[in-house]
Amino acid sequence: MLEFKNVSKNFGGLRVLEDVSFTVPQAGIFGLIGPNGAGKTTAFNLATGLLRPSGGSICFNGNDLLHVPPHRITELGIARTFQNIRVFKEMSLLENVIVGMHDHLDYSFVDLLLKLPRYRRIEAQAKVRALELLSWVKLDHKANLTADSLSYGEQRKLELARALATQPKLLLLDEPVAGMNDREKTELMTEIVNIKNRGFSIFLIEHDMRFVMGLCDRIAVLNFGRIIAEGLPQEIQSNADVIEAYLGKEEAA
Amino acid sequence: MLEWWDSFWSTYNAVVFGIGVNAMLALSIYLTLSCGLLSLANAAFMGIGAYAASLITMQLDWPFPVALAAGGLFPALVALIIGIPTLRLSGVYLAMATLGFGEVVRVTILNLDFTGGPMGLNGIPQKTEFWHIVLLLALTLYLLARMRRSKIGRAFEAIKEDEVAARLMGINVSMYKLLAFVLGAAIAGVAGGLNAHYTFTIGPGNYGFENAVDILTMVVFGGAGNLIGPVVGACILGVLPEIFHELKEFLLAFNGFILVVVILYLPTGICDPRRIRAWWQHRKTTNATEAA
């Protein structure tokens, strides 16, 4: 579905990604893990068009994403959440989600200017749909509050609902459980599985090993800008390189 | 009663006209601010609109509505041309670039022949009626209110709050910024056209830096978060000089003082629905506890 082919990215002399190749398969949950600073978020920024690769190519369902602007990539069907939460803090939860539907609110300037039936119908449908998406992450009872009144964990869930509102085929989650407590983590895990079962493909970045191992169907491991392993969770767990990257090498006595 | 009204109107009609025009200008700045753009070009756009409309009436003697339409169209075209490169800038850099543009416009008008150079244009027919201003102000308010409650308004606010997130929601950020900038220019231009057709004379000095700041002051003072704020700002700052006309020499200092006080104590402006609601609720609960 999403294919990275020999992708590299330099910031000046700093090589953040080197010759990275992997394919996020259709359906299921694909995880990209790796220690801090391995280049995971950079991979997301490349996939969503916020950054351009220094080399290699990125394809999504056969579309080359190399020169596609971010808002067009969203239209093609990639949505994401952010590691450092970026909800629209002064808007209500409902408005946050409806902003995500931007491309799908198909009325003209005249429709909205004269409040024609088409405008009214589409806006009303958007509201219903937004409430439904909020109910998926169990925030529908707070729909009219402003986003800055939410707790950290709730803001993450709101981001999730907002990303779903763009009607993505592939959902990128950037450290979805960062800063959450165990109860919140378990809750979010169930919700992500529910979203997967609704037919969305998911590509996530995460630190929390328990979370990743329990959730992902396939995992790629990134270390110092290179993919050092890819496979099923069990394979990754027993891979010597991965253990070394995470725990360090044991010195010979 | 009627007599009183007649004497009031003959003394103060210029003030009322001025407030109406300033309210439109304030709304044009509100529009760009609502998209997160700090543009100081609107005084220059007003000037372009004023000159375009006046020249059409004076040289071609075309009907007033056509002149006003051209007064909106010309600045919009200019905004389209300069907006594409400059709207890549953000924050103070955009403010500086648009300020520079304003100066370019002033100097250009000053040095052209058909604009009358430093003398400006004199003897512009007085065609603006009170109801023209009321109608166009109402239309502007209606247009902006409709936009606010649609995907366009939501896109503007999303861009203002977080440009990156807005972009990833599928919003074509540069297109919407350009829309706000061009539409703001058109509104300012129409206001300029209206203004020129009751002041009789216009000159290059009417649309400079000071005016840009004056308009911005009205918006900041009234509140940039909603449509009522800019209009209230234009009204209050339009009436103040009449009330304190003995202070004439100190008026600018007085304006500055008020601005400082507002920014310090009411940073979201006088009209902030959220604060007013919170204050109202607070009063209700304190009243309730007192009663109990």
Written account of the structure:
The complex is a heterodimer of chains A (253) and B (292). Chain A has 253 residues and is an alpha/beta fold. Chain A has ten helices and ten strands. Chain A has helices spanning 40-47, 70-76, 93-100, 109-113, 117-136, 152-165, 182-197, 209-215, 233-237, 240-247, and strands spanning 2-11, 14-24, 29-33, 55-60, 63-64, 78-80, 170-174, 201-206, 218-223, 226-231. The longest helix of chain A has 20 residues, at 117-136. Chain A is globular, with a radius of gyration of 19 Å. Chain B has 292 residues and is mostly helical. Chain B is globular and about 70 Å long.
Quick recap:
Chain A is an alpha/beta fold. Chain A has 10 helices and 10 strands.
Secondary structure layout plus pairing:
The complex is a heterodimer of chains A (253) and B (292).
Chain A: E1 2-11, E2 14-24, E3 29-33, H1 40-47, E4 55-60, E5 63-64, H2 70-76, E6 78-80, H3 93-100, H4 109-113, H5 117-136, H6 152-165, E7 170-174, H7 182-197, E8 201-206, H8 209-215, E9 218-223, E10 226-231, H9 233-237, H10 240-247
Helix pairs in contact in A: 3-5, 3-6, 5-6
Chain B: H1 2-34, H2 42-60, H3 64-86, H4 91-111, H5 130-148, H6 151-161, H7 163-168, H8 173-199, H9 209-222, H10 228-243, H11 251-265, H12 273-291
Keywords, separated by commas or semicolons:
heterodimer; A: 253 residues; alpha/beta; Rossmann fold; six-stranded mixed beta sheet; four-stranded antiparallel beta sheet; 24% strand; globular; B: 292 residues; mainly alpha; ABC transporter involved in vitamin B12 uptake, BtuC; 76% helix
